[in-house]
Amino acid sequence: MENANAKWYVIHTYSGYENKVKTNIEKTVDNLELHDKILEVRLPEEDVVEVKEDGTQKESKRKLFPGYLFVKMVMDSETWYIVRNTRGVTSFVGPGSEPVELSEEEIANLSLDSASNKVSIKVGDTVRITEGLFPDYIGEVQSVDEEEQEITVKILMGSKEVSIRVPYTGVELN
Asked: Are 11 and 31 in contact (CB under 8 A)?
């Protein structure tokens, strides 16, 4: 059930602790049954493909905002205390560590709202990659993963066809 009073906030964490903090907040929400107050914790990441000297490729995830998490929650003294006192959290982002909710424009730019995460790209479409290691490459969509909000695109690299995973936000229809 979506709570109309829930807003997106940014929390600062110790660098490298983002996944641990996310897991700890989610466990606390489960244990205290606060799903109606702390709706979601997000760590935006993108897939990157590294091409090594020997030509092999390694896929890995890269945090888009190292040291930060996005939390959709109803701000009250209880939720503030829970998030703020989670091990690894240094503060909420805002003046004097006072939590400041993200604006509608910021939410849209960060693709945090699930409505903005809908994609009209389908298998067989031709797309141009706009971000990551392969900007301006054009390829054919091989698969769409709505849960991960990624697509697999087949591109031509030299004389080889290569499949890469790209976030929805990293492509545009060609």
From this structure: no
Query: Model pTM greater than 0.70?
Result: no
* Three-class DSSP category at 78: helix
Q: What is the DSSP track for 127-146?
A: EEE-SSSSTT-EEEEEEEET
**What is the pLDDT confidence band of residue 107, given thresholds at 50, 70 and 90?**
confident
- Residue 81 burial by CB count (10 A; 0-12/13-18/19+): exposed, middle or buried? exposed
Cβ–Cβ < 8 Å for 75, 7 = yes
Q: Which tens digits make up the pLDDT trace of 74-92?
A: 999 999 999 999 999 999 9
Rounded distance, CA 165 to CA 163, Å?
Answer: 7
Asked if residues 9 and 102 have their Cβ atoms less than 8 Å apart, the reply is yes
